[in-house]
Recover the amino acids of this structure.
């Protein structure tokens, strides 16, 4: 038996260890677009002269497959409806489709592809590139791998069609189109990328009562499950051993070089330093003259780091997690280049992405989550973070302790609904320090508005400003909450705060105060604070914080003709056209000055 070493203990003639894996695949159809002849095996239709053709992306597919000569590419243009369709392919049982695409994510809203399966002339949508990019928060450009399960097409003849529809959308490149079938043969190998999982399959014979797996290079490295799932995070070629037992004897099988993990260039990413805050208007808000440590959040096993800073006491660093101090209030950029033996990648912001010192809004919502703000409507029971009939009075958003003393001048709250039958009802906002139990405790300051004063615009996202009579001081090291409520709940009241809702187990920063119930199920004035851990949420509640007494560091007004205009999204990505959502617009004037404003599309 090639590649398998089996050892049977005495008396175990009916016991035989054997295994495979779902990812052990053999390719039976492949399209690489590496020649005109290969290109012509597909059919193409178009409405624009800028349509599918042979070429290379700005980063050729040879960076993924060294044998690649070219790709199927499309350059964006006006009024495009471009289709590329495969020949009819017999789909085997246990098959999956795999291909790669290279595109930026900025203008997919204006043009992107959809992938269809065509059986007997009937089309079924398999993938929508724009919906995928929205769900992933994709910016790019990078080669991204797509995998589609074809189980429902087993034993059918199928054509696959990429249909690109757009008007000045995105450049596209597609390559590495393969249809594979699970191969449980003894010569099969597994070929995966770093960070991918393998689903092992026990195929042993006999009255088996125990399984002992050993995975070189895998996480976990051992397992006693019958069909374990193992992650491989580092490039290499790894063996797997399975020992099975029936209670009196054992049998073992080893497959040498069964799992082959291909290394990839890392992807650079920067985390939020302790003592810094997220913001609706800049990537992060940091203190001045206080050391902060930038955490490296890169993926893909980088081995080298090169940081470049603006406005700090050091200009660059090769540490993985460097500590720097911003020495002057202002807005700055940051750059991180990470590399390993497979390549390098750069994360770079515009020079207004990080604000040091001054005044700025803060919240707990990541830039890529901004587009997903919504409400939680609970039917007859009202709204979470708003009017409700579930005994939830106040709602609180938790904030980590500042690294230096700060002041808070107001709290901006973004509402999704502000219908108020009880228009004269007071809605209070407080800043509260956390107690020893981590719950809201000491009131540091408070203000209020009438329900009729809440702001909402269905065409955009606007803030209701709850201003404090005097700025509230929060001492360094003090965790605090922005607390709002209670909300009126008479018939006709319908108020709700926008929020970011996450999957189970993700970050949650919202809390609710729940009133106690009396003997007749009436709500009492007493109650208790609870952290929302069942439905992880961050509310669109934004204290306006000042790190020092110098005030805002916003750009000064220009006084002459605008000579250039650049749009930036909340992650600091630049564009020649506005983004959907919040934009920071930087105008450069003929006199050398700049103006920075914000718009919402």
């Amino acid at each position: 038996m090639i590649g398998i070493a089996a050892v049977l203990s005495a008396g175990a003639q009916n016991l035989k260890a054997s295994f495979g894996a779902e990812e052990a695949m053999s390719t039976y159809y492949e399209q690489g677009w590496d020649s005109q002849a290969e290109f012509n095996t597909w059919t193409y239709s178009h409405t624009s002269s800028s349509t599918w053709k042979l070429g290379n992306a700005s980063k050729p597919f040879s960076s993924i497959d060294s044998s690649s000569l070219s790709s199927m590419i499309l350059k964006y243009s006006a009024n495009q409806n471009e289709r590329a369709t495969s020949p009819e392919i017999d789909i085997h049982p246990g098959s999956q489709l795999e291909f790669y695409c290279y595109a930026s994510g900025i203008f997919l809203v204006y043009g992107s592809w959809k992938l269809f399966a065509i059986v007997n002339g009937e089309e079924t949508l398999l993938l929508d590139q724009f919906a995928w990019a929205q769900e992933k928060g994709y910016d790019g450009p990078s080669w991204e791998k797509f995998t589609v399960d074809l189980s429902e097409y087993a034993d059918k003849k199928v054509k696959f069609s990429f249909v690109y529809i757009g008007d000045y959308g995105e450049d596209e490149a597609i390559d590495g189109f393969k249809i594979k079938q699970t191969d449980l043969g003894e010569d099969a190998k597994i070929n995966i990328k770093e960070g991918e999982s393998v689903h092992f399959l026990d195929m042993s014979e006999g009255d088996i009562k125990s399984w002992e797996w050993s995975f070189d290079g895998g996480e976990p490295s051992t397992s006693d499950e019958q069909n374990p799932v193992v992650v491989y995070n580092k490039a290499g070629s790894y063996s797997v051993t399975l020992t099975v037992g029936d209670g009196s004897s054992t049998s073992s099988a080893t497959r040498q070089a069964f799992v082959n993990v291909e290394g990839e260039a890392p992807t650079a990413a920067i985390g939020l330093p302790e003592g810094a805050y997220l913001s609706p208007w800049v990537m992060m808000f940091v203190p001045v003259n206080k050391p902060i440590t930038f955490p490296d959040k890169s993926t893909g096993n980088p081995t080298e780091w090169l940081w470049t800073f603006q406005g700090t006491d050091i200009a660059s660093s090769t540490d993985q997690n460097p500590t720097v101090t911003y020495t002057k209030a202002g807005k700055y950029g940051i750059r991180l280049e990470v590399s390993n033996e497979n390549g390098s990648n750069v994360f770079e912001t515009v020079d207004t992405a990080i604000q040091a010192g001054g005044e700025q809004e803060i919240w707990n919502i990541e830039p890529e989550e901004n587009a997903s703000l919504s409400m939680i409507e609970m039917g007859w029971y009202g709204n979470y973070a708003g009017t409700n009939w579930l005994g939830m009075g106040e709602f609180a958003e938790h904030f980590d302790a500042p690294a230096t003393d700060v002041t808070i001048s107001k709290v901006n709250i973004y509402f999704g609904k502000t219908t108020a039958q009880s228009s004269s009802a007071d809605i209070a906002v407080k800043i509260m320090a956390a107690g020893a139990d981590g719950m809201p405790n000491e009131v540091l300051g408070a203000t209020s508005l009438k329900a009729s004063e809440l702001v909402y615009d269905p065409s955009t996202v606007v803030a209701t400003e709850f201003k404090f009579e005097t700025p509230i001081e929060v001492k360094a090291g003090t965790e605090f909450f922005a607390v709002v409520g209670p909300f009126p709940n008479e018939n006709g009241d319908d108020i709700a705060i926008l929020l970011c809702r996450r999957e189970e187990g993700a970050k949650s920063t919202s809390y609710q105060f729940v009133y106690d119930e009396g003997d007749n199920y009436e709500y009492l004035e007493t109650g208790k604070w609870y952290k929302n851990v069942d439905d992880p949420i961050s509310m669109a509640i934004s204290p306006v914080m000042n790190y020092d007494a110098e005030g805002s560091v916003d750009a000064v007004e220009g006084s002459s003709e605008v000579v250039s205009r650049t749009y930036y999204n909340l992650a600091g990505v630049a564009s020649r056209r506005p983004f959907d959502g919040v934009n920071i617009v930087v105008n450069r004037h003929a006199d050398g000055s700049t103006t920075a404003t914000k718009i919402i599309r």
Q: What stands out?
A: The chain is about 0% helix and 50% strand. Residues 562-600 form one domain. The helical segments are 36-39, 129-136.
